[in-house]
Design goal:
The protein is an alpha+beta fold. It has a single domain, classed as Nuclear Transport Factor 2, Chain: A (Roll). Helix content is 23%, strand content 26%. The protein is built from two helices and five strands; from the N terminus they run ββααβββ. The chain has a three-stranded antiparallel beta sheet, with helices on one face. It has a two-stranded antiparallel sheet with strand order 1-2. The longest helix has 18 residues. The termini are far apart.
Length: 136
C-alpha cells in the first residue's frame, strides 16, 4: 500500500501563559505550547505549597518549607526527593533525568536545576532552572 502522506496530528501541549501577556495579533492572552507549556507546569507544581490548592491538599512541591533549614547534603537530598515525588505524581508527561539543588545562602534561597525528557513522539530532552525564595 502506498504512503499517501497523510499523518495524524502530532500531540501538542498547550496552556495559558501565566505572565498573561497579550498576543499582539489576536489581542488575547498568549498561549505556551509544547516544551514551554511543560516547563511552566513543572515550575508551577514545584512552586506550590501543600494545602495551597483547594480540593487537592497534597498537590505541590512544598519546597518553601526548606528555606530556613540548615542546608547540607541531607537537606539537598530531601528536597531532591520531594521534587521527584511531586513530578511523578502530578506531571505524567515527563521523565526526570537529573535534579540538582544548590543553596543560595546570602538570599536564603535554593536554586533548582532539573533535566527531563518530555514523553512525546519526539522524545525531547530539556531542562528548567529556577530559584525558590521567600516571597516577602
Amino acid at each position: 500500500m502506498a504512503d499517501l502522506g497523510i499523518r495524524a496530528r502530532e500531540r501538542t501541549y498547550s496552556d495559558l501563559d501565566f505572565a498573561f501577556k497579550r498576543n499582539p495579533v489576536t489581542d488575547a492572552v498568549s498561549i505556551k505550547r509544547d516544551t514551554e507549556a511543560v516547563k511552566q507546569s513543572i515550575v508551577n507544581i514545584l512552586s506550590t505549597n501543600r494545602g495551597e490548592r483547594p480540593f487537592l491538599p497534597d498537590f505541590g512541591g512544598n519546597l518553601r518549607s526548606y528555606l530556613f533549614e540548615n542546608f547540607d547534603g541531607i537537606t539537598a537530598s530531601l528536597v531532591e526527593e520531594q521534587i521527584r515525588v511531586a513530578i511523578a505524581n502530578y506531571e505524567p508527561r515527563v521523565r526526570i533525568l537529573d535534579v540538582q539543588v544548590t543553596a543560595v545562602p546570602d538570599r536564603n534561597a535554593m536554586r533548582i536545576f532539573m533535566e527531563f525528557e518530555i514523553l512525546s513522539p519526539q522524545a525531547e530532552v530539556t531542562s528548567v532552572e529556577f530559584v525558590v525564595e521567600r516571597l516577602r
